[in-house]
């Protein structure tokens, strides 16, 4: 992982999102390799912070500022 950011939205945000984590990886292959490990401790810990189901979006960074 190259970097990560956690964004907290206003509780009245119309998107319905409350928290978002943006992770940057060296490549999709690096991400796939890490995700394949599963890391059950991380998935188990999520229930302490949310009752929602995590949603994954995968995309490519086209521009940086």
List the helices and strands and how they pair.
Layout: E1 3-8, E2 19-24, H1 28-36, H2 40-45
Antiparallel strand pairs: 1-2
Describe the structure using short key phrases.
single chain, alpha+beta, 2 helices, 18% strand
Can you describe what's shown?
With 65 residues, this protein is an alpha+beta fold. It has helices at 28-36, 40-45, and strands at residues 3-8, 19-24.
Strand order of the largest sheet: 1-2
Number of strands: 2
The overall number of domains is 1
Please give the alpha-carbon distance between the first and last residues: 19 Å
Low-pLDDT segments? none
Q: Radius of gyration over alpha carbons? A: 14 Å
Beta-strand content:
15-25%
Largest sheet: 2 strands, antiparallel
DSSP helical segment count: 2
Element-level helix/strand string: EEHH
Structural class by SSE content: alpha+beta
Q: Brief overview, please?
A:
By secondary structure, the protein is an alpha+beta fold.
């Amino acid at each position: 992982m190259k970097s990560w950011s956690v964004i907290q939205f206003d509780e009245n945000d119309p998107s319905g999102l409350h928290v978002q984590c943006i992770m940057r990886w060296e490549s999709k292959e690096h991400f796939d390799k890490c995700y394949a490990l599963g890391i059950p401790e991380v998935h188990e810990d999520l229930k302490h912070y949310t009752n929602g189901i995590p949603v994954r979006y995968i995309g490519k960074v086209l521009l940086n500022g």
